[in-house]
Amino acid sequence: MTSFTKNELDELTKRIKDVKFGMFTTSDSEGRMTSRPLTCQQIDDAGTMWFFVSDEEEFTRHLPNLPSVNVSFADVDDHLYVSVSGRAGLTRDRAKMEELWKPSVKAWFPQGLDDPHLALLKVTMQSAEYWDTGNSKMVSLFAMAKAAVTGKPPTDIGEHKHLGQ
Question: What's the whole-model pTM score?
Fold first, then answer.
């Protein structure tokens, strides 16, 4: 179970919902970290993120012993950056798959919900952090230039917040 409040979950979901891909980072048995793009299908009310994956992907084999993961999202145009840490595992919950299924997922799983390698990746979020400037590029550049001239870190370029801690 996550330690996020409902307001924190709403805040996080609002920021992530329009970012198409997250970079999903895992560790292997040798301690190497690797990432791949995945699409978050949902963040539910319990603070769980859901992704469709193939159980044939090498990284899924490491999850039972190394479930700690990170998912990072970036929308450069909107100056939004989000990092989510949690614990992941695979499930084949058919009801949940049916709930989350979208026609676009069929591009990766041509047999649809009956694909023998289709699985859901369930990530229980433990903490998150985001940086959201909400400013135009010019405002951000001005703040950074001002900081470079004054030698003081920029304080007016947006919001940085820790969630779930």
Answer: 0.82
